[in-house]
């Protein structure tokens, strides 16, 4: 009997211990389960908020995923409220939501638009099949300095010792030597018409609008620069040809004024291709509901209106074409002979200036051809990057005869660059600012759908801290969600 009592006590104690162990284990499992459930509920709530605040318009059109952290004008407080409501619904009455707060986010503008660049790279990898930038590099051979240093050295050697001070004292157009020196034979020193004077007249009228097709339309909308992502992130350097063509030193600086874009075509090729695919331009309207009609031009020039951006871009295209055309003229013996003869005529009374004036006239003709190139480009034609005798279009006095040129000369898929190709080259000259201006354009268009949308409030990831109570336990949780 005594042994039976001991056994009963032992079994009772053992069962009691097992019950205690079970209760402890159950409690541990219950708390762990509650913590896990709370964590899952918090992640689910964050994903729900992300989905609700993702801009469908921006994703559908631009394939960029953004979370509008300020949707509904309630900002992060609204996000915290929505997450709290989701937690209360999913966790039930056993749980208490003590606090919810948004802590940290990764904005689309952070780190020099790094998240935007990454999404562009992803889209290029999975979505873009047209390697337009690769084709552009092949067509140009990456040659962003078409006038070689050897050519410049040869020019310098020819004009060495010639002073530029008397260039402006050359005879006025249509004057004759016989009017100044009666003892000279009547036609011996008769000057020909100086083509630089016509170029100056056209430039004064505004070259970009001089070549503008008659049926062109610009948006009347004006960009409020102060509200754009690009505000305060640099601008575009001026790039335009001085058309006086009376200064040799200035002429040399203009020959390769557009250099520096070839490396960007390689390093920033995905972004340049993305812009070419997503945004409107003067010759390529992809959408008819955009705030600006000339979006690529805005990305390049950053001016408030279509008209200003068009003007600036045309002048920059002319700079590119000027260098290429000048380089070709130096290799064309017959054209250089024509220029030599004209320079000789214009410098009849100051013959020492002849070699210098010849190269100033070469610059003038390169400019005339560049304007003709731009004239063709804005009408949808292609222009070979480097010219030859077969596809040269103008005479030296042809700036007022653009309507007479053959626009189809050299207009082929194999060798020609179109207007958008030149826009991509220009983008390569200022890629850092281009990212911000692409986001400007996206914001302008998205705000037509959602007036309060601003890129400064757009994120690709955000974090949330929450304190959740369960019975007598409190869980401090953190969750992050994003793209």
Give the SSE layout.
Elements: H1 2-53, H2 56-62, E1 67-68, H3 75-91, E2 95-107, H4 110-126, H5 132-140, H6 149-159, H7 177-180, H8 195-205, H9 207-210, H10 248-255, H11 262-267, H12 269-278, H13 295-301, H14 306-329, H15 333-346, H16 354-377, E3 383-384, E4 416-417, H17 419-428, H18 431-449, E5 458-470, E6 473-482
Antiparallel strand pairs: 1-5, 2-5, 3-4, 5-6
Helix pairs in contact: 1-3, 4-12, 12-17, 13-14, 13-18, 14-16, 15-16
Task: Explain how this protein is built.
Strands 1, 2, 5 and 6 form a four-stranded antiparallel sheet that branches. A two-stranded antiparallel ribbon has the order 3-4. Strand 5 (458-470) and strand 6 (473-482) form a beta hairpin. Helices cover 53% and strands 9% of the residues. Residues 174-191 have low confidence and may be disordered. It has 483 residues and is an alpha+beta fold. The chain has helices at residues 2-53, 56-62, 75-91, 110-126, 132-140, 149-159, 177-180, 195-205, 207-210, 248-255, 262-267, 269-278, 295-301, 306-329, 333-346, 354-377, 419-428, 431-449; strands spanning 67-68, 95-107, 383-384, 416-417, 458-470, 473-482. It has 18 helices and six strands.
